[in-house]
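Hi team,

Filling in the usual template for the complex we talked about on Friday. All components are listed, including any nucleic acid strands or ligand strings, so the model treats them as one assembly.

SUBMITTER: L.P.
PURPOSE: interface mapping
COMPONENTS: two
RESIDUES: 508
SEQUENCES:
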Amino acid sequence: MKLYVIGLGPGNPDTLTSQAKKALQACGTIVGYTVYVDLIRPHFPHKEWISTPMRQEVDRCRAAIEAALSGKDVAVVCSGDAGVYGMAGLILELLESYPAEQVCRLETQVIPGITAACGGAAVLGAPLMHDFAVISLSDLLTPWEQIAQRLALAAQGDFVICLYNPASKKRADYLQKACDIVLQYQPGETVCGLVRHIGREGESARILSLSALRDTPADMFTTVYIGNRQTRKIHQWMVTPRGYQIPGRKEEAH
Amino acid sequence: MKLYVIGLGPGNPDTLTSQAKKALQACGTIVGYTVYVDLIRPHFPHKEWISTPMRQEVDRCRAAIEAALSGKDVAVVCSGDAGVYGMAGLILELLESYPAEQVCRLETQVIPGITAACGGAAVLGAPLMHDFAVISLSDLLTPWEQIAQRLALAAQGDFVICLYNPASKKRADYLQKACDIVLQYQPGETVCGLVRHIGREGESARILSLSALRDTPADMFTTVYIGNRQTRKIHQWMVTPRGYQIPGRKEEAH
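RESULT (copied from the run log):
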């Protein structure tokens, strides 16, 4: 009667927490999107696996709840953190239609993982050291007007901005559109970064200006960072200073 | 010559990733703020420990760099994620004053951890399922006017807002001031949450309205979540729907 929603981190089993690993070991049934299930399947033998393709999230989560209610210990897995554009919310929303006494019998727990914002930031250096906004450019579930407004307000507030789902085949120009909005408030030289396949085979990263980012292709495997006005390139890293006074350093004019 | 900056997660050693654990095992010297060092010291015997109190971050990080340059393998530890209000940025900033050839010889790596935003969200349910802003209310290194502006813009954009450092002894009324700003844009019934001592002994959580949050005391061990206009309480959880269509559910008017 366990129902765990588990964030796997960026994809490499090394980025799992001990808590997540123990929860996966404790569950006989593991439910997830085909691609993520395939990433961890070799590390957890002798399990029942239920996987469904993308866009079948509601069916997948309902199958997990029904399996748990039937008496199984079930883990729903997501890449990154289950609570950031993951399955935690949908599982809890679906539980709303079950009576409280049934829900109480389930031992439901969300187990956090390293979200792409944090995993990719570590690859680039330290871009998220100051206040930041996380925005998904996917308009499958959110109207583009709302995404555009959030981009504009985050840029006005000089937040560091981390973009999830920056582009897809159908949305090839969304990152360009997003950069054009930010460019209304932030200079073209703003230091930005891209990380692709965080923590997986073929990981790559790049630091570039906002103007250059505008003309750079991205895909669903890319996480994008737009710096604030203090963000700098230091050696090979993208760094947003927190504001510590460093004795002996020449202070730049702000 | 290793220099790792490691996020420990919320505090319980169970929230460490395997990657972070291996890195800690590989290092002979561990550097950190006294409180965090004491949390993990029992789990990593036979190490050299360098700890300094709060507000001595620059000295602490410089000591870590000097130890690594002298040939030691050094881990700088932070609670949560090293890249979110942690030490990753300061370490990289301090490396700026060293010549590139010296920096190249150091094997510098940031190892991510579960940041409080994600750790606390998992305790509450799923408050961060949609676009969110992370804002620290500490004005030690950031002018209050900038914090206030960011709060206003994030509220205008209907971002879920996660607040770090919501109050301290000297800043007893900062959470109240922050809520007053958000209340200019969001209704008093907005669903909010508080988590104290995430993942540690004495962990506690509470879900309450924005109006009630305004009059609730908080401290440096508290992480605060202000929902967006879709955030709801479902059973005992705080949930921000992502927007999935759930067949058979009565659709609410927006």
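MY TAKE: The radius of gyration of chain A is 20 Å. Chain A touches chain B through 82 residues (CB under 8 Å).

Thanks, L.
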